[in-house]
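Supplementary Methods S3. Complex input for the adenosine-5'-triphosphate-bound model.
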Amino acid sequence: MSQTIQAIRGMNDILPDEAELWERFDDAVRGWLRAYGYRPIRMPIVEPTPLFARAIGEVTDIVEKEMYSFVDALNGEALTLRPEGTASCVRAVLQHSLLHAGPQRLWYAGPMFRHERPQKGRYRQFHQFGVEAFGYAGPDIDAEQIVMCARLWDELALSGIRLEINSLGSTEERQRHRAELIAYLECHREALDADARRRLHSNPLRILDSKNPHLQELIEGAPKLMDFLGEASLEHFAGVQALLKEAGVPYRINPRLVRGLDYYNLTVFEWITDKLGAQGTVCAGGRYDGLIGQLGGKPAPACGFAMGVERLIALLREEQGGVAVQAARAEPDVYVVHQGAEALAPAFRAAEDLRGAGFDVLWHCGGGSFKSQMKRADASGAQVAVIIGDDEAREGSASLKPLREDAAQRRVPLERLAEAIGDYFFGDEEDGNV
Ligand code: ATP
Ligand code: MG
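Predicted complex, serialized as structure tokens:
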């Protein structure tokens, strides 16, 4: 027997029960983004490979080993499935000169692709909601972005997501720190692991982020970037913190928070939970004032973050158990049961008319006895069944049967069906019979 084809490892099907929860999540997030004045933008999923090499950095994990890159067999172009959204978003903003109209608050959502080792909370196709603000230089927008995350966790009833922040300073400050860091690590070269040695000159800051337990003491003693920050950087960082305090959002300064992408400067932050095991970062971002210039645009400040949807959904399930999932089930208002050749057309029309009147309707397909159809109607979760058999078809009526309460079935003319169902759902106040 031939084997059925399976999905690619690390790329998941989101089945209906799960997908309905995703929809509820999406709705909540969209409303929240609107409340903060963010507007949607949609970029292609495939981009020219050089975009990511230039934006994210040649010696980052993503560009070195995680990108799905390929050559377009038809025209030889080097293409990549986007591993993140910021680079695409900046490209789109520059290509369409959006900043001519002034600062912009934008958001996007969709799948991202990284060739990582699949495990719980880490997939090769995963989804992000991303937020980017362009043209704002001050710490106010950094703080607003962080505070807006706190509000979303509240709205989703997610607790225990803690905030870590850090400042990466300016390019010059990082350069001076980098030189001292390399000198320090050179002195302890024999203690470094292979990964750290490889990064010693290309990306030493990332060594500070190493999870290798043997390196922790060494990392602890390394020169701290914070000690290299000048007055302007410190002031910006203080400005962010003042607004976080104002909003009552607790945070911890983590001097080792460096982020895996090269484009960040000044504020960086992560939201982390302990409830998902090792993959606990549900949202991460920061400022990237240099990126627009780096991609050939007129330099403008920028700040953003991205949330991992799979991880937040996992947390929603963890915290609310089955409740969130059950509430996500989309149930029809009406189930249309019909039997006999004569009932087919009027039942089909009745279902369409009811949808036109604003009801969610499941029309029974596939025949079967009344009894088996009524079982389906019950299982669908619908509130009422509309039944059309030979008798009803002949007299141009339908029987209306409430499914969730012990009420009698009654017959109504087809032209009054929508009204009768409206009365059932909303009461018949409009007739003045309250
Ligand atoms: P990590 O340290 O977990 O690898 P990252 O720093 O690579 O994360 P970002 O590029 O900042 O992640 O992406 C923002 C968010 O997207 C992460 O905080 C996480 O929630 C989510 N994310 C990143 N990579 C994956 C993945 N492979 N699978 C699922 N979610 C992911
Ligand atoms: Mg990563």
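The mean pLDDT is 92. The pocket of adenosine-5'-triphosphate (ligand 1) is lined by residues 84, 114, 116, 121-123, 126, 128, 260, 279, 281-284, 306, 308, 310-311 (CB under 6 Å).
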